[in-house]
Amino acid sequence: MKKTILIMSAVVVIAAALTFLAARLPYQWHGVDETVVEKFAAAAGRPASPPLINTDQGDLLLFFFLIAGTAGGFVAGYCFREMFPPKKKG
Amino acid sequence: MSRKPILAAACLLAVFGLPSTARAMHISEGILPTQWAALWYALAIPFVAWGLRDLRVKSAREPFFKPMVGLIGAAVFVISCMPFPVPLAGTCSHPCGTGMAAIFIGPALTVVVSSIALLLQALFLSHGGLTSLGANIVSMGVVGALAGWSVFRLARRFGMPAWGAAFLAGMLSDWATYAATSFELTLALHGSGSLLKLFSAIGVSLLPTQLPLGILEGFVTAGVYSFIASRRPSLLYCLGVEPMPCAHKKPMEPAR
User: Fold this and answer.
1) Which of B25, B23, B30 lies closest to B131, judged by CA?
2) Are residues A57 and A85 both part of a single domain?
3) Cβ B188–A46 below 8 Å, yes or no?
């Protein structure tokens, strides 16, 4: 238990340090679809149109990403347990 | 080794990685002209049909196959909507996971799981698009899967250690996916200009982001391979990833 708490704390500290560093860097962190794909498409006269189902409105997209993460994590965890059942103690 | 730290690390990764807008490789809505969008759909459909047939045949033969496909499918979905910041370029992009998937479930089924992941992303996450779905399936599903699978098989045939072959497969499948995306964009956008010039320009622009990300994907693939090889090696034989140690097929060993 103690080891788990130590590892968890180390992960949180490292993640926080990396996040802090990333936020301090003078970058916008745009995706390559914006910086490359959409840039070339716009230059060729075919700019990207809004998605047919546009969930990129306020916090709606955040909600869908959380749902996607939860659903994906649940399915992965469920199947993982089927494939790699916990080791029997003793 | 206790699984709690791994589980905790995975939860943290999901919390830090997922709840943000994933803007990366997928070709967005409206970029491809109708004829190109239709062509990529027409190219993708036979591969999806091949994958569905593969699922039916293999899951009838091996009862564990469906959970394996579920696990890999969920991994591909999560990995391909997780934007990674690349400090070298100051941009974000995502790995694809199709090289890893192709090693374990084969290229045909990788097309199916990629198609489902891409469809869900286009419908709910404003990531990619419905008109560009065919093109995205071809680049991520078909090209990524075939590249990863063939690189792994070739590397093993030439006697490379399994983890090294998995690393190469993961890395090269990522790069192949982005090369295919560049090619699709070039075909659709070059107009009367030079095909090669536009392809090189798009490829060079993707390079600073994808070069390190491909290497990261290689490490992830090698890590997953090593985990399965140490935890339940019989899976690799049953899935046909590695040849059987003996001439006849042994029944699957009970899970440890």
Assistant:
1) B30
2) yes
3) yes
